[in-house]
Amino acid sequence: MTESENQIKRGNMVLRPYQPEQYADCIESIWFVETFSRGQTFVIPPNQFVDWIFLLGDQGYYHNGCYVETVRIEGIMEKPVYLKLLPFTKVMGIRMYGSGLFPFLPITGKEIVNKNISFFDQEHAALIQQIRRSPDDSSALASAYKLLNLLYNSERDEEARLVNEFYFYMKSSQNLPNINAFCRQTSTNYSSLNRAFSKMLGLTPKKFERLIKFRKAIKLLVSSPEKLTVVGAESGYFDQSHFIKEFKHYMNMSPSEYLNLLDLNEEHRVLKGLDLSVI
Questions:
Q1: What is the pTM of this model?
Q2: SS3 for 107?
Q3: Is the sign of the CA dihedral 130, 131, 135, 139 positive or negative?
């Protein structure tokens, strides 16, 4: 295993994301974040992914003010996460698409949406401990794939396929995504889609569509010099006031306040590189 080609280093921390070698329909990336001599605090935007998080070593971190030191599963988040990493912390995350966890673990979206829960599996405890004690990225990745291979269930993967197809439709659509258009394209009625979303994501298709629209907007906001009016229009909002209102709903701050936060904290941009790498 070679070093990540997309390593991002800023100030006191480094991010190393890797593209998945297996299960690319389920996994968006596997990432490592490592701090050095001092800790860092971040505001992580709401996102449509599920992260399976492993501490590599004994140093824990704070998630929304609560100290955690166990393996965690974080579901889709509709509100910001306040994360504080302590000095000399190393974390690995398996970042999965919304329905990507289900083929490996029979955990429904309702159990994890807007939550960060502890995970323990007695049957695979030794392998999980091996991941946590890995001396480098390569060893951690090798052990993580062993765990995934042992847990993978093809029947659950097939059950999650409709929601997975919807996400990639939303991601690849050249125009603003439309739920009705997806249903026509896949010969799916909305009731069936809604039931699948309720089980896999714990959200309705409309709420998920709304979150995706926001994610497109925040990605444009931090990566382009365009004014708020243009960013909002290209993301599908009626006008600038609608975009600002929606931004405050998700972030509890205005777009300008969030941009100021990024400018004041260069390490924050490291996590921005992870969280906004895809829509």
A1: 0.90
A2: coil
A3: positive
